[in-house]
UniProtKB/TrEMBL annotation:
One of its GO terms (biological process) is amino acid catabolic process. This is Mandelate racemase/muconate lactonizing enzyme C-terminal domain-containing protein. Residues 201-297 form the Mandelate racemase/muconate lactonizing enzyme C-terminal domain. One of its GO terms (molecular function) is hydro-lyase activity.
Length: 455
């Protein structure tokens, strides 16, 4: 396919929410009822190609996300794709500049919106080149890659010159890793689907056995409902998964720093790789303290899914505060800022293990982890696999029988959702949200809050 240079003519933004809480998918100690939701943007162009980009939320507030996307999306209407992609680093910088800067476009909901807008541009770029996004990025020269990154605030830890050298060093062996990616042997998967907090012990046992049969060797479980309950549940998991399995726990920001240290010491005998989000994601020094204190017990620390930007990741790495960089593909400023975090992680020698526990995240992160393996770190890491809602996507994520992520093959960034999903789950007009049950869930202002939810 010959590359085209479409002009963006208009856009639509839609609020899409799947009622995943009804199956306890995504339940954790801070939120008992996660509805996987997308603020979904599509740019139309004069060529018939469209660029799709979205960001994620847990249901409540998704309308705010959609409003934020609507406030940013008009900036790119009328622009030729090449005028944005010839210097993506500059495009990122412009998206977070101007009057909107007061609204914190590099943190919080505006950040999610910036991500959705830039995701749509990356999707359109990859579609116009007829390549899956990971391949588009891996085919960029080191000089072209560097132009995708806004180095502002990074240069005390990572310079443009250093990145050029890092990327050039990897060029010689890139073809070998590209071959592995094309054989679906780039990115091993780990499983989270067995470990949602709302599942019964029997359900956990059944899901673990089925995940083991699918070839998984790494499992992550939610924890933090109390020591007695955690010891019983994690003991069961260790027994079913076997001594060789790699186990991780995730407590979703539950504790104060010292509380995390004291609690986790009690789980040392379970041989855990890491505890994920033990405390506030903003507390970089707190994570460093927890990591140092738990090291003698053989337990690592992981965080990143709520870390807003490259500056925080820089500090997290400088402070030696994490054993895994769990970037979220929807929280950073799209592929641009993700590339800077992949490069920072490679420089500090910490593996990138992206967060992909929500609908569509595995679809996007299978591109990101493949880019990291082929073109940035050159190292094998692992990527989360959750098995819900893949059927809703036009280019669904898949895993191989031996537990690897399938490298995406369709042109674009795998963002497109099938039209049928909107008929049922667009909020509030879709048939589910118009049903008595849907209306009741939407009317509950405390949905997901322990002790307060009434629906
Ligand atoms: Mg998590």
């Amino acid at each position: 396919m010959t590359a085209t240079d479409p002009t963006i003519t208009s856009f639509t933004v839609r609020d899409l929410r799947w009622p995943t809480s009804l199956e306890n998918i995504g339940s954790d100690p801070m939120n008992l009822a996660g509805e996987n939701a997308l603020g979904y943007l599509q740019y139309e162009t004069d060529t018939g190609l469209f660029g799709t980009g979205w960001s994620f939320s847990n249901g409540q507030g998704n309308d705010v996300l959609c409003t934020a996307i609507r406030s940013l999306a008009p900036r790119l209407v009328g622009r030729k794709l090449s005028s944005l992609t010839s210097n993506m680093g500059d495009t990122q910088r412009k998206m977070v500049s101007g009057q909107i800067r007061f609204m914190s476009p590099e943190r919080g909901v505006l950040q999610l919106a910036t991500c959705a807008v830039l995701n749509a541009i990356w999707d359109l770029w990859a579609k116009s080149e007829g390549k899956p996004l990971w391949r588009l990025v891996c085919d960029l020269s080191p000089e072209e890659t560097v132009r995708c990154i806004d180095f502002r605030y990074l240069t005390d830890a990572l310079t443009r010159q250093e990145v050029l050298q890092m990327l050039k060093r990897l060029e010689a062996s890139k073809a070998d890793r590209l071959k592995l990616a094309l054989q679906n042997k780039a990115v091993p998967a780990y499983n989270t689907s067995a470990g949602w907090l709302g599942h019964s012990d029997d359900k956990v046992r059944e899901l673990l056995q089925s995940a083991k049969a699918q070839g998984f060797k790494h499992f992550k479980l939610k924890a933090g409902l109390g020591l007695e309950a955690d010891l019983r549940r994690l003991g069961l998991v260790r027994e079913v998964a076997g001594q060789d399995a790699v186990l991780m726990v995730d407590v979703n920001q539950l504790w104060d720093v010292d509380e995390a240290i004291e609690y986790m010491k009690n789980l040392a005998h379970l041989n855990l790789w890491f505890v994920e989000e033990p405390t506030s994601p903003d507390d970089i020094l707190g994570h460093a303290k927890i990591r140092k204190a738990l090291k003698p017990y053989g337990i690592g620390v992981a965080t990143g899914e709520h870390i807003n930007n490259r500056v925080m990741f820089k500090q997290l790495l400088q402070a030696e505060a994490t054993d895994a960089v769990q970037l979220d593909a929807l929280r950073l400023c799209s592929v641009n800022e993700i590339l800077s975090v992949l490069l920072l992680s490679a420089k500090f020698g910490v593996p990138v293990v992206p967060h992909s526990g929500g609908a569509g995240m595995v679809e996007l992160c299978s591109h990101i982890s493949t880019i990291d393996f082929v073109a940035v770190s050159g190292q094998t890491s692992i990527l989360e696999y959750t098995d819900h809602l893949h059927e809703a996507f036009e280019a669904p994520a898949q895993i191989t029988p031996d537990g690897y992520h399938v490298s995406p093959t369709q042109a674009g960034y795998s963002c497109d959702v099938k039209p049928d999903e909107f008929e049922k789950y667009e909020c509030p007009t879709g048939s589910f949200w118009q049903s008595p049950q849907g209306k009741m869930m939407l009317a509950d202002p405390w949905r997901g809050v322990p002790g307060e939810q009434s629906s």
